[in-house]
Fold each of these.
Amino acid sequence: MNPIWQPGFKMRTSLAAVLVGLFSWALFLSGIARPSYYVLDEELYVENAKALLAGVQDTCPAGPPLGRLLIAGGIAVVGDYPFGWRLPSSVFGALTLVGIFLLANLLLEDLALALTAAALTFLNNFLFIFSRTAMTDIFLMAFAVWGILAFTAALKMKSLGAWKRRGLLAASALSIGLACACKWNGVDELCVIAAIGGFLFLWPRKTKNPEIALYAGHLREAGALWFSAAYLLLPPLAYVSTYWPYNRMHHLPFSYDQVMAMNVYIWKNHLTIFGSRLATLSWYRWPFHMQPFRPLSYLVLNWYIIWAGFAAFVYCLRRFARSLPETLIALLYLANLLQWAATPQKTLYYYYYFPAAMFLGIAIPVALRRLPAQIFGTRLNIVTVLPAAIVFAYCLGRIANLPTPFDCALGCWP
């Protein structure tokens, strides 16, 4: 029997997931009202959310509606002040981390390595900052991770039956559609799923790779027609459905012409945006960029994860198409990074690296699983997390917007 279905395994995993979610949410909430002013693009999204609540037409609908609806929900429930703006981000940040933990556990079938992936992801700086900022990137990430998780479960779980696999694929497709309704970048995850699904359906039934053969059999059990229909129909359906409450709150018709016109505006807006050359950064420099992005709470990827994560990514490439964990993580990282090489958008900011960087925290334990569990009597996963924790502690004063003198407790950044 698959260990995922053993009662003790399920209980430990479920308890760990709950603790990961509650612990991370508590830390995201701590001091979330700092600073009391808008950070980077917060003004755009928060003012749009306020316009929604006031029933005033949005003068700059620069992106899909779901993220602004969620921010508006926080303001409606808690109030129009920084805690209310950022509360939904903290919730979805915790959900993202739980999704990463469950995805790593599903891929590696090792609770310790899954907790390592969750710890490295929490400590990467990106998740902490976006979970405390009223922008739509964290909503995109949460829905994308859970969509990938449901797809992976459909591939890996044994003894499910055809209809449960189809249900997981449908849930995955809907989640990816909601990710796109936060930011169009969700299409990257859709492309990864399509690539893996197509590969498995075309994989010969007689093969020397039992792992790939098993996943291909599970996907064939769900059916090529169901897979195609789910990912062709459900993401657009989920995406378009988010315009119904948005248009209703703006007193606009929910019609094909109206929704199409709004999406054409988004497309044209992204083609014409030009930012300061001092703040923009070419996409191929993001993976090794080490200078903090001051306008967004001194955003910078944890310096240890920059190098350890890249080394793990290279290792994943060595086993590409031979094992699901390495293949999936490599594809997710590459898709979320290389799409910026093809996008016609002229202005690129470092924080666009967020989705790609999130998968480096899983890449490291994926590489660790083929190494000895201990080194000099110490568990290797603990040795791996410790440097990330030290760097995170050094960065914390700045990225958490701590007041003076705590912001410079370990030295002031330029």
Amino acid sequence: MLKGEYGEGPEIAMSVLTKLGDVYGADRMIDVENVHIDGSAYGWINDAGLDLVERFCRSGMTFKVPTTLNPASIDFDQWNELRIDSSVAEKQFRLATAFKKMGAIPTWTCAPYQYGANLKYGQNVAWGESNAVAFANTVIGARTEKLGDLADVCAATVGKYPNFGLYRDENRRGQILFELDDLDFRTFTSTDYGILGFFIGTIAGNRVPVVTGVPKNATLDQLKSYCTAAAIGGAVSLSHICGVTPEAQDITDACAGVNPEEKISVGIGELDDTRDKLNILQGGRAEVVCLGCPHCSVEELASVAQSIKCRKLQKGVRLFVFTSRMAKALAREMGVIGAIEAGGGKVIADTCWNFIPMEDSVLMTDSVKMAWTSSQKFSKIILDSMEKCVEVAVGAKS
């Protein structure tokens, strides 16, 4: 492929991947069985990325392994209603057409592990999107590095990736131990799990954290929130949550028999301090309530609908709920989407809140990632649980 014997597309892809492997000291290429493309939004890869993907498509290339797609720059059904520029929509449609011709599964979600991707323990995959990478490594026990935009496209076109980083046993060893002290997980919401993840990420940096004390019955949505926040708080692509992570049933497993470099105790004080850091509110009441970063699951959509319960949004408040097209379709059949929309909420699929035009206002969200990364759009931010967010949007129950 590198010599061009299989055509222009594979030659370009292998040229990129071998250079990447050289930079990181990879000893060889390995086969990957699944790819998640982060660079699927025109707003992230722009004209240069669109040109490359269309060039691959024109060459007749098809993806060699099952390949899912991260959110687009638009909701394909509602882009005009959401005031998306028509030129952006046109280029996103072109990008979508090229990806689908090459065989991508049009999931358009940042949570492919919930709807679209079928992973298993020990499997080598090549994923972009920080929360998805952290979830795949931490919860499923698959192996992936965090791929940059368009490197993921190259991996999908050849079914290979350089063998470095978290593909290698020695780089998956736990390095820093977090012991959770007297935390009542019975009261923990997904947002609380996110706050825990963010704190651990800020301390761990790019080291592999080992976490003890998390209950084995933590839900997938709670673990999703933890992984998302750990990845944004630091550069954590793998946490060993003892008893949850398949390769880390205990500390000895997680650290491969080596003593951790450092031990950190985490109590309610550390989590309260982290919560205060994420709440950037300087007076005022919530004007925009945003949920679904990462995309809401069907269960979370049902929870939003249950919290609304035939009530209407308060005057001057907008509610946006972001999800995948698969979750939206399932929830619509359950009557959940109708209930949210009847209350005045807007359910948006395929895209990310980053791409929706919004004026500066007071944002309330249940997402640690959204709270931490939204300062370019919002100067005042409130972080609280999904239930509290909905309660603020529609008013307390009478």
